[in-house]
Model the fold of this input.
Amino acid sequence: MTTDTIATGQAGRFAIPLRYVPVAVTAGLLIAMFTVGGIRYEGFASGQVILNVFVDNAFLLVVGVGMTFVILAGGIDLSVGSVVALSTMITASLVTNQGWPAPMVIVLVLAIGAALGAGMGAIIHYFQVQPFIATLAGMFLARGLCYTIGTDSIPITDGLFTAFAQTRIDLFGEMWISPSVVIATVVVLIAAYVLHYTRLGRTVYAVGGSEQSALLMGLPVGRTKIAVYTISGLCSALGGILLSFYMLSGYGLHAVGMELDAIAAVVIGGTLLTGGSGYLLGTVLGILVLGLTQTIISFEGTLSSWWTRIFIGLLLFAFILLQRLIGARRT
Amino acid sequence: MSPVGNRALGALTRHRLFWPAMILVALLALNVVFTDNFLNVQMRDGHLYGSLIDILRFGAPLILVALGMTLVIATGGIDLSVGSVVAISGALACLQISELADQNAVGGVLSAIGLTLVVILALGAWNGFLVAVVGIQPIIATLILMVAGRGLAQLIADGQIITINSSPYKLIGGGYWLTLPFGILVVIALIALTAFLTRRLALGMFIESVGGNAEASRLSGIRSRGVLIVAYTFCGLCAGIAGLMISSNVSSADGNNAGLWIELDAILAVVIGGTSLAGGRFSLSGTVLGALIIQTLTTTIYSIGVPPETTLLFKALVVTIVCLLQSPAFRQKAFRWRRPVPPPPVPREGSSPPSAGVGAERQVREEDEPVREETVRNR
Amino acid sequence: MEQPAPIVRMSGIGKRFPGVKALDDVGFRLLPGEVHALMGENGAGKSTLIKVLTGVYGVDEGEIELAGEPVAFSSPSAAQQAGISTVYQEVNLCGNLSVAENIFVGREPRRWGRIQWREMRRRAEELIGGLDLHIDVSAPLASCSLAVQQMVAIARAVDIEAKVLILDEPTSSLDADEVAQLFRVMRRLKEKGIAILFVSHFLDQIYEISDRMTILRNGKLVGEYLTRELPQVDLIAKMIGRELADLEKLEGKPPARVAEPLVEASDLGRAGGVNPFTLTIRQGEVIGLAGLLGSGRTELARLLFGADHADSGSLRVEGRRVALRTPRAAMNQKIAFCSENRRAEGLVDELTVRENIVLALQAARGWSRPLPRRRQDELVAKYIAVLNIRPGDPEQPVRTLSGGNQQKVLLARWLIMEPRLLILDEPTRGIDVGAKAEIQRLVVELSDGGMAVLFISAELEEVLRLSHRVGVLRDRTLIAQLDNDDALTTDVLMQKIASGAPV
Done:
């Protein structure tokens, strides 16, 4: 019985199970990027640089967690960016314009995000509408609601929000993180636990591997599919809350294209878009890669912002090619 | 109604273009109610004017992009990069024209357009290469160009919006020819070309075969790789031409905003038109209908006086309605109250069961074929 | 000895689909601790009966009782929970999960909501060991062979404490050793009192393993019989409702042929596919390929068709050297290949019968030279008649046809090309006896007409009945080429295949 390994290094001393290779490659790339940056730029080689990536992308990390669930189950969610923006808009308009207490608004926004997700999941499951189209409709709906609430940016001045925005949690050695990073980390840990230690998580993998088989095995496919979209909606809403901490405003044009960033992070992290294969750690690393790319470009200074897009495009290409080569070797 | 009439009505409503056509009619009707002279088409200065003409004119780029997208989706793929291709196309053309000594020189403009289209063809072929030869999933393969392409467009335009002043170029998107807006003529020509290639020639059958079962097609001697590359190249070309139209209409190129999200509208148009995202049978007329619905929707929103911010909401509504109506599961649950028309008695041997429209339930086969997994190859 | 009460009793079952009555007053009994075979041609209603029992479909008429209680399952999972488990032909499990997970997914052992992985692995090992299998339960299921995957599916069913186990065509892709193992497991399950419903086309296996059988024909019940009391001849007669004269007409070996070589393969081989082989196929000759699953028969055929690239050796067609790198190249040489995997590699479901039939012909012409519609209609009508494809409407989607008729559509696609060499890979697998006889007769006719045929089949009788020469493959090597004279029997072939095989 094969144990499905490829050996790296000379005498096959160092063998990684095949399924971990994509994540290992991403980790390797990350280390390489950090090393190159450290050599090339002053002040790059500090832990704070990495932590800053987390600080600046905490919201994307949470959204990425939700997207990972959906993609693992074999679906896709194009609505995440719009739900993030909607969350910021609802938050800002209720807190600033209507004066509602912040905690209540936060709970409401999370509920709305989850409800939207559940709705899309229900349409996808009960009416057999393709996830691409259903979540596209969700994206239009959420973005449309944003513009209906208001076309201009609404500032957030509430105490709780500004506190979250400005607080620094000091770690050892002059390094610091924001509270959002803590929230994001907690979300990642909870999600990883669910994926690996609960029946829901394993059913997600099963459905992503083969929905038809999962159905015939008697697994609760419908419930699981609706659950992953609900989780994604919830994570998008939470991501929106974190974004409002970060930007201190609600705006209909926030998070445009964020779904692409989330998908890119998931793909770079080694998760297959076909479903059933991948790890949450991969998504985390994927976001780190995206963030570090941004950092490098800003350190470079002379490069215009559009190089980021070109570079990320190239990076995606490289990773996909790698996944393809490894996949071809497996078969 | 008589049983024959009932069955005829049933067959009509089951036609996959029925509901989209109804939606378009409904939207047009709304417009008629809210806008005076909506259906009026006037001839002024030898040109046709009118709201209907406007819909066609402004919808032309979308129809083009959707046309190309139809072929790609029919092969079981998808092309997310068309928006970026639109931007690159406009930027390239405008850059070249802006560097011409005489921006009105037809020769110069034609060579600029020609060179642009060559580059666009290469980009389309690149997508096709990734999908057909390297074997990357279409959604990811085209995602690469989607992400990098905007950067490329910006790079070409050096971050600026290039403005030009060229009347030959202006013709494409903004001008008139033979009384009709030039853009409409381009669309008609391209629809005719596509229809000819796919239906009169065998390209359509090959595309549907590759989309239905790529390996079986290969083993039947179809050069699947070639078909895929042709489909993606054609899609890129359509997007490129649409990009020329869009930038010509405003005589400038905006690398950031040109064609933003047009891929989503195009995919929607294709799906509304009845082509399945899973690939296989496609319908050009369905796609055109779908694109017109989306364009009419935008117009309708303006004319009924609803704030334009709500455009997206209405789009969401229309998309949802059409997709639900096309879903057999939905129709079954929603229209349970309507008694199904009993089929005519079928003699035992050697004849086919009553034929059903595309949307109706499959005839169940009676044998021991293994349960087949419905694989969706892209989303 | 008194018979135990049936665990499953179905009575008066009726099921209609638009235009066809799939089951008409069918009754069926399954006793605990027996292996019961469900027999019938394609279209007889076996599949529908099972789907009705397992909750995939609802019944229009009739009742189902499980252990004496009336039941009506609304879904497969409901049936599963009640104790009826099904193992499908292509083993519907999740290949991306491990063996242990596949056994337990949805029911993983937990403590305070947290899955206990070690416990799960331990129990999985126990279960697998109980089936006399020794594998790494943490390995992904996709890395296991189909036979092992089936065992895992059975282990899952056993652990769910199934009272009824339905095995739907479990042996189609297994070799002789794996079938023997499966049967051992089935006997062990019998002893535990589990009732096993066994669906298969392999009559020998039915006779080896089943206790009783139920025969369906055209949606009606023909009868229920004790296996040992029903001779095979009578079984077939009841299944197809007509005399065996059709089949028996083909008894006797084909006359020997001396003709020009058509295709000569010298040391043609492909790493990982088939070791270099040398084979000469003469015009009008029928060459049968026999061997176990995985012995390289299909790989050999694919090399002759250009479906795969050869690493070594050369190929000559009518004396001229050719390099067949694509199916197109082979088609240009008038070689045709009818794949064994007709769903995945043969038919395009979306397209109509007509389009499927003309597909290869059109492909050979290229997309710029379409076949005129009139010509298409002519050709298609001709082959529908010749091959007796039913229903005969060329415009219906090919997916609505039964397996046997789909196979004929695929055949028509290649016959229309008028090839000089026709390669048939398992053309009669999984189709009913009547269609099987028609295809075999066709092969003889084509050969008489001068077409060379390479015929691959797992059924040795079939190979012997049709071939002038037989090639034997073992472990991806062509080990023998034998003339089909009177000395060649299935025993001789089986010995050739088995001799030297690893134990």
